[in-house]
């Protein structure tokens, strides 16, 4: 087993290097190019390539840090040293000791990543005209984001350690339940607690846009209670829309950027895609699959951790970086399955969008708009798509719409 995990780690490094080379090379083919040139200008494509290439070096550096940081932290003995240094501040409570240790771990990781974070979410975004933030906005946003994610992580990881301590060797069976509970609570609370921390929401008052959205919702069997608009334009030009609420009674949140850049028909088409996810129970299916996946991962971690942990138990806080490293390796190898399921769901939602709106041209124009607004690199490498992509490549989605057969659906175009 020890040999197995070490081989897997070596394979991880080799694959990461291969992926880096493939990413650099891209996946341009004559077929892809001729389809792309039907909808995009040469200049669009060049700009998108430049955006992709500039992000490239910084993303490699960031991946190396996130791979090297946890094992160095653990095997150098720094983990044990830090826990001892923090000991006097815990007042004899294990939970407090754990919380400050986890917090310190995240602060160090955050500081190491900060230059790259700055490059990605500020410098690069500004260079390409995505970001509307000033430096001050960016600092506030980054600190807020870090605090929220550190807070959630501390609660989640503390709950995991409590489970390790209370359930002994049976933790493998209980941890997936704890994760499931968190996921359900988070999904439920997100619009009420976390969304308001970052966005201002207001009632959606965009006359001409409202009727087509209601029409789409009604057709899908959704009872729309409220339409909200949120101010993504404060941060970026990226566009989105999503439903919240259980059952058929829903509220919809629409990014102001989506309305700014798209026609009412295009926005309705995007909403139909989201309705497709709901119709096919994708959120619930995703949570259920994640639940079963976490059993397998927990079992692998339980087998691997003791081999490298010396005399530490999984319930000792010092082992956190090792746990995190083991998770990085295993989840890398389960990524293709996750991506495959996610892409399948996206195809289903796209199909639903086309069938329910009956409008091929609107589907394509909203895709093209999306790709232009995000400066999406269109010639992604097929192998990278297979391993990582949550959505089918943009050109594939456009081709799917071109090939879509409207016979048997309600409306025709
Ligand atoms: Zn989708």
| Residue fraction in strands | 5-15%
Provide mean pLDDT, rounded.
91
**Class by helix and strand content?**
mainly alpha
- Which cofactors or ions or other ligands sit in this model? zinc ion
Q: Total strand count, please?
A: 4
Termini separation comes to 58 Å
Query: How many separate helices?
Result: 16
Please tell me how large the radius of gyration is. 23 Å
For the biggest β-sheet, the strand order reads 1-2-4-3
Helix content: over 70%
Residue windows where pLDDT falls under 50 for at least 5 positions = none
Q: Largest sheet, described in full? A: 4 strands, mixed
Q: Which oligomerization state do the chains in this entry correspond to?
A: single chain
Shape: globular
Q: Note the run of SSEs as H and E.
A: HHHHHHHHEHEEEHHHHHHH
Provide the number of structural domains: 2
């Amino acid at each position: 087993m020890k040999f197995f995990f070490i081989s897997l780690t070596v394979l991880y490094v080799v694959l990461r290097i291969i992926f880096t080379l493939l990413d650099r090379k891209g996946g341009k083919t004559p077929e892809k190019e001729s389809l792309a040139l039907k909808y995009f200008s040469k200049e669009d494509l060049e700009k998108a390539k430049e955006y992709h290439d500039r992000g490239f070096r910084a993303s490699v550096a960031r991946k190396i840090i996130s791979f090297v940081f946890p094992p160095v932290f653990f095997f150098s003995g720094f983990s044990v040293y830090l826990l001892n240094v923090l000991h006097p501040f815990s007042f004899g409570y294990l939970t407090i000791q754990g919380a400050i240790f986890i917090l310190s771990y995240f602060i160090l990781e955050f500081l190491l990543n900060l230059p790259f974070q700055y490059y990605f979410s500020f410098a690069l975004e500004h260079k390409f005209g995505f970001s509307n933030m000033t430096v001050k906005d960016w600092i506030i946003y980054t600190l807020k984001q870090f605090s929220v994610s550190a807070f959630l992580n501390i609660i989640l990881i503390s709950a995991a350690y409590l489970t390790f301590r209370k359930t002994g060797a049976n933790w493998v069976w209980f941890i997936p339940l704890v994760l499931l509970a968190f996921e359900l609570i988070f999904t439920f609370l997100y619009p009420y607690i976390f969304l308001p921390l970052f966005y201002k929401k207001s009632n959606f008052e965009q006359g001409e846009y409202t009727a087509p959205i209601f029409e789409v919702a009604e057709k899908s069997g959704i009872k729309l209670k409220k339409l909200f608009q949120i101010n993504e334009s404060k941060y970026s030009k990226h566009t989105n829309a999503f439903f919240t609420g259980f059952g058929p009674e829903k509220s919809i949140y629409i990014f102001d950027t989506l309305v700014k850049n798209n026609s009412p028909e295009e926005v309705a088409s995007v909403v139909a895609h989201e309705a497709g996810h709901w119709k096919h129970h994708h959120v619930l299916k995703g949570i259920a699959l994640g639940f079963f996946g976490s059993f397998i991962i927990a079992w692998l971690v339980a087998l691997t951790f003791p081999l490298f942990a010396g005399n530490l138990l999984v319930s000792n806080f010092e082992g956190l970086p090792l746990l995190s490293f083991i998770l990085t390796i295993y989840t890398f190898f389960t990524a293709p399955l996750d991506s495959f399921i996610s892409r399948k769901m996206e195809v289903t939602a796209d199909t639903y969008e086309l069938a329910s709106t009956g409008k091929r041209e609107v589907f394509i124009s909203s895709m093209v708009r999306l790709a232009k607004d995000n400066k999406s690199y269109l010639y992604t490498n097929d192998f990278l798509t297979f391993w990582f992509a949550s959505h089918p490549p943009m050109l594939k989605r456009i081709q799917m719409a071109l090939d879509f057969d409207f016979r048997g659906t309600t409306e025709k175009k």
